[in-house]
Amino acid sequence: DSPWFSRRKGILSIDDVPLDRIAAAVGTPFYAYSVTALRHHYRALTEAVAPHRVEVCFAVKANSNINVLAEFAALGAGMDIVSGGEMARALAAGTPAGRIIFSGVGKSDAEIRSALRAGLGQINVESPAELDAVAAAARALGLRAPVALRVNPDVDALTHAKITTARKDSKFGIAINEIPALYAAAAARPELHVVGLAVHIGSQILDLTPFRLAWSAMAALIRDLRAAGQQVDRLDLGGGLGIAGAGGPGPDLADYARIIGQTVGDMGLALTIEPGRWLCAQAGVLVAGVHYLKRGDGADFAILDAAMNDLMRPALYDAHHPVTTVHEPRPAPAMPLVRLVGPVCESSDDFGTYPDLGALRAGDLLAFRDAGAYGAAMSSTYNSRDLIPEVLVEGDRFRVIRRRVQIRTALRLETPGAWQVTGAV
Ligand code: LLP
Q1: Could you tell me the CATH number of the domain that includes residue 115?
Q2: 345 is a catalytic site residue
Q3: pTM of the entire structure?
Q4: Which of 226, 271, 340, 374 could form a disulfide with 54 if both were Cys (CB 3.0 to 4.6 A apart)?
Q5: pLDDT per residue over 224-236, tens digit each?
C-alpha cells in the first residue's frame, strides 16, 4: 500500500524485506525503519518548502538512533535538539555544529557550556532566567552566544492536550508581550548575538489554521521589533506537522508551504522548520508477536509480546496506531473485535481495539504502523523488560542499528557503591 510497506507473496514487507525474515533474525518485538521512506519524506518536505528558502532541522527527539540521524544528516538536514544527550547524537551522526538548534525549557549550565564550546548554530531561550544563564556561560567562555527567543504566541494547536505547547498557560516560551523589552535588553548584551525568534505550537497538528495564526503573530511581532530598531534575521517556525491517521487525512504539504510563504515569506528572514514526526513516523513499524488469545467481555484479548514500555503513545495519549497482520488476514466467521494488550502489569498497557485483523492465532506477527516517531525514542525498561532492537532496511537488505538491551546489562549498573557516611543527624 506504499512503496515501503506492501504485501509480497502474502507477507507484509518493508522495502523488499519480508517482516517475518527480520523477526526470525532478531526476535520480536522489534522496530524496523525503511531508509527509502525516510529519504522520500525528507525530499518531499524540503522540496515543498524550497521556494521559501526554509532550512529543515530534524527534531532528534522523534527518533534519536544515530543511524537514522546519519541518514538525515547525509541528506543535508540540520538538527533540533533538547539535551546534551541529543547534541552528542546529532554530532556523532555527522551534523555540522552550526546546523544544530538547541531547544527546550530547562537547559543545564553544563549543557549550555558544551553547546557553546561545540559552536551550535542557535540556542532557543525560553525564559529571562535562561537568557541570564546563557549570557553568563558565554561570558565565562569568552564567546558570543547565538540566541533566539522562543515566543509563546497564545495559540491553541487543536491537538491532544498533552502535546500542545503554545497556550498562555503552557510552560513553553516567553509571553509575546514580554518579547520587545527582553529582545532589546538581550541585543544590548555584548556576550549575546540575538539572531531572531522561535515558535513551536505543538505536535500532530492536522488543521493548519493554528500555524497561520501563530506565524502571523510572529510576523507582526517582527515588524514591531524592526520598527523599534531591532535586527531580526532568523525565524524558527518549529515542528508539529501531523500525519494522516484515525483523525483523517494528513495535511497537504503545499498548503503548509503556502502558509509559510503568506505569513512570513517575504520578510527577508532565514527560516527554519523543526519537523520530527512527519519525517519518520510513517517510515517505521513496531512488529510484535501474539503470545496468547484470551476470551474477554465484548472483545477478545490478544496478549502480545510488545507492551506500553515499547510503544508508550497509546497509554500516554490514547494514540491509535493502525495494525496490520504480517500474514494475510485469515477469514473469520464474524469479524471479531480484538483488543491488543501487552504483558505489563498496568491496565493502560492496552493498544486499543481492532475490528479487522481476522482470526488470530498464537505466534502470529502484527505490525503497528506509524511507529517510526516517538516509538523507540520513548521506550523504557518498565517491568524490567528489554529495550528492543531497531532495524534499518534498505531495498532487500536489513541491519540491526540498536541491539537488544537486556537485563544483564541493566543489572551491571545496580551493583551497590560504597556507603557514603554522613554521620547521624
Ligand atoms: N520542535 C520543538 C521545540 C518540539 O518541542 C518538538 C516536539 C518538535 C520540534 C517536533 O515536533 P513534531 O514535528 O514531531 O510534531 N511524544 C509526543 C510528541 C511530543 C512532541 C514534543 N515536541 C507523541 O508521541 O505524539
Answers
A1: 3.20.20.10
A2: yes
A3: 0.97
A4: 271
A5: 999 999 999 999 9
